[in-house]
Amino acid sequence: MDVNKICIVCPKGCHLNIEMNRDNAFLRVTGNLCIRGEQYAREEIDNPKRIITTTIKVIEGSIKRVPIKTATSISKSQIEDFITSATSMAVNAPVYMGDVLTIDGIQMKYICVIGRTVLKVDTKL
Ligand code: SF4
User: Fold this and answer.
1) How many domains, in total, are found in the chain?
2) Which of 13, 26, 109, 110 could crosslink 103 through cysteines, CB 3.0-4.6 Å?
3) Which residues are CB-contacts of 38 (< 8 A; sequence separation ≥ 6)?
């Protein structure tokens, strides 16, 4: 079976034709202009990964939730575990853009990066 995908590794956007074997595993690719396209095609078929973004709760923050993203691509099969784990997590304000935090999932620990600074609200006012 063949699958057509556009390589997203660089702006050229090569149109890939990916052949798979009877077990739906990667066999070969055509249409790529470089080896990175082959690596992308192989990973897309055998173990697709993505950088995932979501938000988590901020306790005593100037806003209620802060955006986070995974520091590296995670397998598509781990996305639900990551989102479920992040949904039940909260951090204390202040947090700063670029801070790193670890989310304990059931399948693994996810290293994430905070996407925005959230200062602490002065509750004594
Ligand atoms: S195959 Fe190579 S040149 Fe083509 S889009 Fe992918 S990375 Fe870019």
Assistant:
1) 2
2) 110
3) 29, 32
